């Protein structure tokens, strides 16, 4: 039975794969739009609504909070609705939330609809890896690169165009027009779900068998290793997104230069998205790559702490290679599972736990900075996070499968 299951899982699902390819790529593009289209305009929106700085902080924490909550809830939702319907729901939630929040005139409704959009994106974060596993099990590295690059593009582009679009058409249009991408991404999922009953049955036979063998993901060291690797990478990344401008400003740089360095840091994530999935697929145990990433983290931290303005571009470029562990983790979700059922469970656990931890990164960095009036303690926190990345990656990178260790002994 197990051998039959594995043969079924590995058989490429050729029919409809072009459509699903488009659906996955378009959905991945949507997964950060609500975050990076809002942040550059936060001060304009604050001036119009009149909310306090603490509310701005709440808006900043909502993305990771929604990603964490729906990371944990999505596997159960996908089990009930199916992967394709869950992906469709995610895109509709994201699109409706982004469109309606642009029409709001009260802080609470703006926040609630932002949360709706981000909840949809949180569902999409989790459901895309098992969809890749289900339809492209023979092309995991290629498809992982496609959707991770799409996520990075959806992160970078809105940040660069939000202010120019707002200057031309107003901030409401600038944060609302991205909803079109969410609605567009829903279309191929609708077409996929409209296929004949026979074709649909061919794609769902494997999970029906595998579901009887479902284990408890939290029992597996693979899952905890993945959560540690992904969570600490996210904590470091969000901390740097938030604090690089302040670190450089305190060293004498202009606000514009600090913003540019955040853009450089983001672009390095795009570079990593092209190479990391292929490395993971070609190396049985890619832990040595993680060691190199850890060295990049430490060199970047040291440069920004001891001599931030000596070679700031160098420090940020090297530091930006450290989060290559992010696309590595997303790729390993599929490489360390036997079926898309296991992939869904591991994706939800990894991202649910990971984003819960990531919520604390920018906050704790700021608390340590305020408490010590310096950056030694905050960077010390990030060094500890790098150690946890290494410990988690040591478990996650071993060539073994989640399903072999997620049952009670």
TrEMBL record:
Classification via Pfam families? MFS_1
What subcellular locations does the record give?
Cell membrane
**Gene3D superfamilies reported for this sequence:** MFS general substrate transporter like domains (1.20.1250.20)
Query: Do you know which SUPFAM superfamilies this protein is assigned to?
Result: MFS general substrate transporter (SSF103473)
Q: State the UniProt keywords alphabetically.
A: Membrane, Transmembrane, Transmembrane helix
Bilayer topology term:
Multi-pass membrane protein
Give the primary localization class: membrane
Q: Which residues form a coiled coil?
A: none
Q: Where is the Major facilitator superfamily (MFS) profile domain?
A: 20-401
Bilayer-spanning residue ranges = 18-35, 55-74, 86-104, 110-128, 140-163, 175-194, 222-244, 256-275, 287-307, 313-333, 345-369, 375-394
Q: State the name under which the record lists this protein.
A: MFS transporter
